[in-house]
Amino acid sequence: MPELPEVEVVRSGLAQTAAGRRVVAVERRAPALRWPIPADLPERLAGRVVRSVERRGKYLLLAFDHGWLIVHLGMSGTIAWSPPGTPLRAHDHLDLVFDAGVLRLNDPRRFGAVLWHDAADGPPHGHPLLASLGVEPFSEAFDGALLFRETRGRRVAIKQLLLSGTVVVGVGNIYASESLFRARIRPSTPAHRIGRERYDRLARAIRETLAAAIAAGGSTLRDFVSSEGTGGYFQLECLVYDRAGEPCRVCGDPVRTVRQQQRATYWCARCQS
Ligand SMILES: [Zn+2]
After folding, report:
1. What is the pLDDT of residues 131-173, one digit of tens each?
2. How far is the CA of 152 from the centre of ligand 1 (A)?
3. Neighbours of ion ligand 1 (CB under 5 A)
4. Long-range Cβ pairs for the range 79-85 (8 Å, 24+)
5. Which of 29, 170, 207, 264 has the most CB atoms around it within 10 Å of its CB?
6. Distance of CA 79 to the CA centre of its chain
7. What is the pLDDT of residues 203-222, one digit of tens each?
8. Whole-model pTM?
């Protein structure tokens, strides 16, 4: 499943390839992914210029003068810039056609989404899918003080809270285990028991972990977008994730694993308290 670092690398690629270009035509080959793809998209977008490509959580936002095309890659989606005339593959559901190339969405499992948010309805962050998202991990609003403030009275395990995306977006399963290890916090710790100093460490650790994944992804973007829709995580050098029984890279004790709400969690009992 594409996570925030993958989506950010895709955004950065689309900003370089598609931004500033005028849509010539739209080919809509599937009526729906997770939700219907607006049938009037061809009329809406033909002749319009992509002003910028932004991201909110794992949603890509293609900004036009009259609204935003909201794209989510779901479980298996890819969106890639292809040269004109590139042959279609199975599951190529949508093309934005430009003079210089085609922006092509492929999604075998169809859990992704393509939606239109009109400028008349206000900024896209007010869209129902985006309005309840937590803060962006690289925004100024995200720091230890925010984590501390938002977790008073919250007894949920800190890892569950991170995965929920309600306080901060983009900390998926791998990144939650890795960030908590870097911050030396045990994943099962109730969120309200964690003090300000440890939350300062956690906020820094989350940024470092995601930045490392984005940096790793920059060099593998080509593989990611040209894959047959399976995506896959970047080659992040994991400290604990998927290393059960192997020696902790800090203390040498075996890395432990436990399942929290059906998701595998990895941690070091000596380093994380
Ligand atoms: Zn350790």
Report:
1. 999 999 999 999 999 999 999 999 999 999 999 999 999 999 9
2. 28
3. 248, 250-251, 268, 270-271
4. 79/10, 79/14, 79/103, 79/104, 79/105, 79/106, 79/225, 80/104, 80/106, 80/225, 80/226, 81/13, 81/14, 81/17, 81/18, 81/225
5. 170
6. 13
7. 999 999 999 888 877 544 44
8. 0.89
